[in-house]
Every structure is written in C-alpha cells, then in structure tokens.
Amino acid sequence: MKYCRFELNKEAKYGLVESVAGQDVITRVLLTTPYQTDEELEDLPSKKINSLPFASAVLLAPVQPSKIVCVGRNYREHAAELGNEVPTEPLIFFKPPSSILAPGKNIRRPRASERVEHEGELGVIIGKTCHNLSDDVDVRPYILGYTCVNDVTARDLQNKDKQWTRAKGFDTFCPVGLVVVQELDPWAGVAVETRVNGELRQQGNTKDFIFALDVVIRYISRVMTLLPGDLIATGTPQGVGPIVAKDVVEVTVEGIGTLSNPVVNEAE
Ligand code: MG
Known about the structure:
There is one protein chain. By secondary structure, the chain is mostly beta strands. The protein folds into 2 domains: 2-60; 68-265, Fumarylacetoacetate hydrolase, domain 2 (Alpha-Beta Complex). It has 4 helices and 20 strands. Strands 1, 2, 3, 4, 5, 6, 7, 8, 11, 12, 14 and 17 form a 12-stranded mixed beta sheet that branches. It is globular and about 50 Å long. The mean pLDDT is 94. Bound molecules: magnesium ion.
C-alpha cells in the first residue's frame, strides 16, 4: 500500500495511490490520519473519489511529524568525506517540523549561508508510539512506512556553529515525499540516489548503514518517545555537495520514487 497527501477542492487530504492499467492514480481519500490509529492502512475508513492521475495531483508533504529525528554519519564513506571518524553509537539531531517542504516546491538558500548542500536519505515514518524499546523488540510494527527525504544542510554554518540547529533548520530544508510506501525492506537493502540537474551525485544502499534501522529506532526510543507520524531521516551516502539557484535536486529511493525540488535564493 502507498499513500500521498494532496489538495482536493482546496483541502489537504490523504489519498491512497494505486496502479490502474500501469498508471498511478489516487482512488480513495482517507477519512482519518493514517498514523494515529492501530488499524492497517487498507482497513482505514476511506471514501472513493473520481480517480485522479497521480501525476496531475497537487502534492503536499505526506507527513506532519511532531519531530524530525536525523541520523548523522550512518554511511562509512560519507563520514570519511567530511573528515569524520566512523561513530561508535548513532549520532542524532533534529530538524524542526517547520523545515518540511512539499514535493516540487522551492528549496530556499538563506542569505546567512554561502554553502548549502543536498543530502538524499531514506525517511521512516513512525506508526505507533514507541518508548524505551528493548533489544528483543521487533521494531517493524512501529513503522508505518517509508519515503524520500532531502536533509538540506548549510554546511558552512554546520562547521561554524557548535551544534547544528541553524545549519539543518532553515525553512524549506526538509523536502519530503512523494509518497509513503509500506512494502519496503531497508534491512535487505534499497538504493538511495541523489541527482542534481540530472547528474548522479550520491549513490548508496541502506544495507550499508553503519547502524541498522532497528538499532537506530531503539536508540532514539531510549532518549525520547517517538509519536505516530514522527519522521526519521536515516543518514546520507557519500557524495554530498553544494546546490545553487536554478538547480533541481532529485532524491530517489528504490521502491518509493523520486522527490524533486528546485533551488532558489532567499530573496527570490
Ligand atoms: Mg543527513
């Protein structure tokens, strides 16, 4: 099952996305928020609509998290490219929910930064409250689904500030979408790629995570309670680099699709 969030008659709705005759279409709208329930997605109350081709829908970010928890340096080669040691335990930080950006909308380079970079990542959406998970607990029932995230970063400010709130936290610095997909197995490995203007810049696979997804979720749950709808950005592969106005950044996660956002300068 997969779903999106989109505009229908000027209202934000969650819509089920199905393949009909080889084309993705939105067939139903959910009558509840998909993650504030114990029901399976297919069992949620929904209403049939006139099928809307997914490609022509006005998409919104498919998550509304209470927090965005990110993992830093979760791929060996990426840790090395920024001159960092491979961490011995997960390194976590926040992005504010206000940084979320819908598919297709503009990433704004703030005037305060001279070097803004892309970080394509697998995003994980929490489906059930989880707190203090022990090592023998299966984390999969706590996961609602997966999406693409761009952990946009003002690299110069990240290096200058002692902590990363500013570098990671500007409005528009968290593009997310297009859809949330349930059938994905990051443990088995899914490809994560980032392109700028069509050119491949980052290429990784989640099977190369330093800390597997279950380790990450347990670790975070021992620090803070993860709530339904919370978003985890799982770390970026090597190949991060600058983006400038007029660039188009695409994050592609195998089995999910491609999240595309243009870049503009703040003044524009
Ligand atoms: Mg990152």
